[in-house]
Design brief:
Number of strands: 19
Strand content: 15-25%
CATH superfamily of the largest domain: Aldolase class I
Distance between the termini: 11 Å
Number of domains: 2
Shape: globular
Number of helices: 15
Largest sheet: 9 strands, mixed
Bound molecules: S-adenosylmethionine, iron/sulfur cluster
């Protein structure tokens, strides 16, 4: 209900977002722009963390080998669609993509040999898998951006989160990475974890910065209704900070970051002045490969089937493994664009006008009047920059978007490999 109210009041959109089951001809692939990012999803993990909403299943070597072949087949199907397009970045996420590091070599070779690819290659690394040999192998494959999913240094909380490593393993991984010469080392930290104190958070952030990393990504834990996290918190009688206290957490992270010489580079990330960034989610246009991967191309947002078995089977039959498609109206395209620019903390009205031949403030009068009136954004030369309050408000909106819209979309996709229609 809250999402419905937000959709109507803030965005002036009455109807729900419609996702249709994919059929040939539904997507006009000619609309893919001249520059596009590529994302490869690897849905395998050694163990399943109770808080995790992403598409993943337990790793098994035989399936991983078949999956590698399916990835190459899917890329092959995209070859004619991406001819004459520039691939500007390649991110490999999951899941735990390094479980398929060997297989990824072939996938990367295929991309390099068959597409006009020039850009950074980023990969997510789970601390339990991190070691010198893995990093050497990733470097050898051309990977230059690393995102290490540390989450916290608190061993008790790591245990509750079922992460399968302790803080000592993370320290070791960070010490090794430091000397590997990657262009960017990003560390993911989660806050507002069950039973966590403000001191714990300050300690985690300071300890990460002591490794002189390039970027810190801080995510407040979102309890997705489809996961087991809510029940686990209740059963263990653990408490979490409320949403006003969450504002204090954001202020604390800002302060610790400032003291350590790091500046905010997006809603959830901090980096050094002029430093390299790991930015897998903020492309204007990207094509996702793999089970559960999503793609955003001009006018279309679509998701592949989440089922690994169905994904492999579809590709064996020479079919694209696309499950559902949201054919975006002009207004939906604008909404999507604004949502992701808020993630960067900056909404450039001039770029909006270039893309949509329209004015931000005229198209979304309620949203932008409210942002200005409540001091949530400062405007300069048509560029809206979110203030601390604006960032906090976005944080609440993003949480709502995750627990309602994303949760329902992903949950439905996990239950049904091929969906006929869904409205959210
Ligand atoms: C794609 S995920 C997983 C990366 C990798 N598999 C790992 O576990 O280290 C990337 C990041 O999202 C964050 N994340 C995952 N689930 C979350 C949740 N429920 N709420 C907030 N952040 C979450 C974690 O910080 C995680 O490192
Ligand atoms: S958080 Fe990472 S390791 Fe844990 S289940 Fe999700 S993708 Fe796998």
């Amino acid at each position: 209900m809250i999402t419905g109210i937000m959709r109507r009041a803030i965005l002036g959109k009455k109807d729900k977002f419609l996702f249709e089951g994919y059929r040939e001809g539904l997507i006009d692939f000619d609309s893919i722009g001249s520059e596009v990012g590529l994302y490869v999803h690897v849905p395998f993990c050694r163990r399943i963390c109770p808080f995790c909403p992403y598409n993943k299943t337990i790793y098994d070597r035989d399936t991983a080998v078949e999956y590698r072949q399916a990835l190459v087949r899917e890329l092959n199907l995209y070859k004619p669609k991406l001819q004459n397009k520039k691939i500007t970045s390649l991110y490999i996420g999951g899941g735990t993509p390094t479980l398929m590091a060997e297989e990824m070599k072939e996938v990367l070779e295929f991309v390099k040999n068959n597409f006009d690819f020039k850009g950074d290659i980023g990969i997510e690394v789970h601390p339990a898998e991190a070691n010198g040999k893995l990093f050497d192998s990733l470097k050898g494959m051309g990977v230059n951006l690393i995102s290490l999913g540390v989450q916290t240094f608190n061993d008790k909380i790591l245990d509750f989160l079922g992460r399968g490593y302790n803080s000592g393993a993370t320290d070791k991984a960070l010490s090794i990475i430091k000397n590997c010469g990657f262009k960017c080392v990003d560390v993911d930290i989660m806050t507002n974890l069950p039973g966590q104190t403000m001191e714990d958070i300050e300690y985690d952030i300071s300890r990460v910065y002591s490794y002189d990393i390039d970027q810190l990504s801080v995510y407040p834990l979102i309890v997705f209704p489809m996961t087991k996290m809510g029940a686990a918190i209740r059963e263990n009688g653990l408490s979490r900070f409320n949403c006003l206290q969450e504002k204090k957490i954001l202020e604390l992270i800002d302060e610790v970051s400032r003291k350590n010489g790091y500046k905010k580079s997006s809603i959830w990330t901090y980096g050094k002045e002029g430093g390299s960034r790991y930015t897998s989610v903020t492309r204007e246009s990207f094509v996702g490969i793999g089970a559960g991967a999503s793609s955003l191309i001009d006018g279309y947002f679509y998701l592949n089937t989440f089922s690994v078995g169905e994904y492999i089977k579809a590709l064996e039959e020479g079919k694209l493994p696309i499950n559902v498609v949201n054919r975006m109206s002009e207004r939906e395209k604008m909404i999507f664009w604004i949502f992701w620019r808020c993630y960067d903390g900056v909404i450039d009205g001039n770029r909006f006008a270039q893309l949509y031949n329209a004015s931000l403030e005229k198209e979304f009068p309620f949203l932008f009047k409210t942002l200005k009136a409540l001091g949530m954004a400062k405007v300069h030369n048509g560029i809206f920059e979110l203030t601390e309050w604006g960032r906090y408000a976005y944080h609440l909106v993003e949480k709502q978007y995750s627990v309602c819209y994303l949760n329902d979309l992903w949950h439905a996709s996990m239950k049904q490999p091929w969906i006929k229609e869904i409205r959210l």
